[in-house]
């Protein structure tokens, strides 16, 4: 796992949280739209340990993070987890 993402003073960071089970083109679309529309410096995808609204448990978090990073390859987007940093 990577460490926590960091921001420099004055940067505007967008947060997109979810289970990303799986990450898909819709996540990519809203991320790219938010970067442009809101003038964000970066967006952090925060992969949650689970989703209480779904009947079945999600895939292992490491697998979801790996797949999310494969789907969202952009220099201003960081995929991170919430669970190991709480």
Question: Helices, strands, pairings?
Answer:
Layout: E1 13-18, H1 25-37, E2 42-47, H2 61-71, E3 77-81
Parallel strand pairs: 1-2, 2-3
Please give a structural write-up.
With 86 residues, this protein is α/β, with parallel strands linked by helices. The protein contains 2 helices and 3 strands. Strands 1-2-3 form a 3-stranded parallel β-sheet. The longest helix has 13 residues, at 25-37.
Please compute the radius of gyration using only Cα atoms: 13 Å
Distance separating the two termini: 14 Å
Strand order of the largest sheet: 1-2-3
Discrete helix count: 2
Poorly predicted tracts of residues: none
Strand content: 15-25%
N to C succession of SSEs:
EHEHE
Q: What structural class should be given to the helix and strand makeup?
A: alpha/beta
Overall outline: globular
> How would you sum up the major sheet?
3 strands, parallel
Number of strands: 3
- Percent range for helical residues? 25-40%
Could you report the average pLDDT, rounded to the nearest whole number? 90
């Amino acid at each position: 796992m990577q460490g926590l993402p960091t921001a420099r003073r004055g940067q505007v960071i967008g947060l997109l949280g979810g289970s990303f089970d799986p990450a898909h083109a819709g996540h990519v679309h809203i991320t790219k739209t938010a970067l442009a529309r809101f003038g964000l410096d970066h967006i952090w995808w925060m992969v949650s340990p689970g989703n209480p609204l779904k009947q079945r448990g999600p895939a292992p978090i490491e697998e979801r993070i790996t797949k999310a990073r494969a789907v969202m390859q952009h220099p201003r987007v960081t995929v991170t987890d919430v669970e190991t940093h709480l």
